[in-house]
Design brief:
The structure is a homodimer of 192-residue chains. Chain A is mainly α and 192 residues long. Chain A has helices spanning 7-25, 32-38, 43-50, 53-78, 84-92, 100-115, 117-138, 145-165, 173-186. Chain A starts with 6 loop residues before the first helix and ends in a 6-residue tail after the last helix. The first copy, chain A, binds a DNA duplex (30 and 30 nucleotides) through α3.
Chain lengths: 192, 192
DNA sequence: TTTTTGATTGACTTGTCAGTCAATAACCGG
DNA sequence: CCGGTTATTGACTGACAAGTCAATCAAAAA
């Protein structure tokens, strides 16, 4: 076995296994041993490549966040300029990061971000990017893009949350968010 | 010390301490010892009254859920019949269950509900009641109360989530949800 | 006063888990 | 084919936490 250049493969396997394990357990209370076993190696090796459990979690979180970013970016490049908002929403519910294990892991990373500084930083970056994307997409189509962006971002998170809890069903998720967006855009002023 | 009838007091203290401890730690990884210490007793006593960590968590979750139910119910009884929707939203963001520790604990209970059957049951009851309340409030004011209720429920959860993450700020939370509701009601049809 | 009963805890048991380490195996370039 | 490097693990440890238990203490009841 001991060929050279295993590191990237091992790391990727561990990251994937981490997401699956967290998704299956529905919690961060998974042991390095469980993760390593699922990834087909010893726990010692997992420590060798990542240094510690926290770093494994962070890598998994980065992976999920990156996947999400990529989905949104792809949707955005394919979108017509006046449909950027819909693209962001579609990207947010791409099957990739919308599979049960990922959503469940995502939910648990929320909790993780409350404890771990770096995790909090990652999450804040994600939130900022989403907000900025939304504002940009909304500016030409509504007169209060900041406020609308906050509302839509919350709606996305809320729908995500419910998807994570009721594992998987939630088919019309994107449509629901689009409905909200549509309603907000059609109404001139939403102050109360 | 050993007077009679300590049990209710002890249980209440433990429940409160559990919420505080989970809120402070930002995670369910709190020890029975920590909880008991915060509640001013030994861990053995906590076990004596509750039987185990899981039951302590469940009791804390029930407490939060009950508090929420009470807030909504109170707001609902005080509301004019045509403002029931706004009352539900206000009740959902009552300062009681909206304080940082409670929201943080709430978030972690979401995670707990993925693991523990009873916790899942409690959460589903809460979701069902919220949905039913919303539908009832929406029926006279819109033609698709079911769909609107799901959207507004998701919005409430999403705003809650963001409040839990960015500990505490989030002052105009209720207003944002009301804005969404308002927009949904003014638009006749929201299908995409 | 004596007995019963709830309240309470320190000490203990048992288990688990993160992280370490020394040893082994297999590739690679020279 | 040899010395260096990477890969890999079994075995170990130190810490910590859940849950148990027997003993103690003090109020209440008899």
């Amino acid at each position: 076995m001991p060929k050279i250049g295993q590191e990237p493969k091992r790391r990727a396997a561990l990251v994937a296994a981490t997401v699956e394990e967290i998704g299956a357990a529905g919690s961060l209370e998974v042991t390095v041993g469980q993760i390593a076993k699922r990834a087909g190696m010893s726990s010692a090796l997992a420590h060798h490549y990542f240094g510690g459990k926290t770093q494994i979690f962070l890598a998994a979180m980065r992976h999920i966040l990156n996947q999400y970013s990529r989905d949104v970016r792809d949707a955005l490049t394919k979108a017509q300029p006046d449909r950027r908002l819909e693209a962001i929403i579609d990207g947010s519910f791409d099957p990739n990061c919308f599979d049960p294990a990922a959503t469940s892991a995502w939910l648990n990373f929320y909790s993780f971000a409350q404890r771990d500084q770096e995790a909090g930083r990652l999450l804040r970056i994600y939130q900022k990017r989403l907000h900025s994307n939304l504002v940009h997409a909304l500016r030409p189509r509504c007169d209060k893009p900041q406020e609308a962006a906050q509302i839509i971002a919350a709606q996305i998170d809320g729908v995500y949350l419910r998807a994570a809890l009721n594992k998987g069903d939630m088919n019309g998720a994107a449509d629901k968010v689009k409905a909200v967006a549509q309603a907000l855009l059609e109404v001139k002023t939403y102050d109360a």
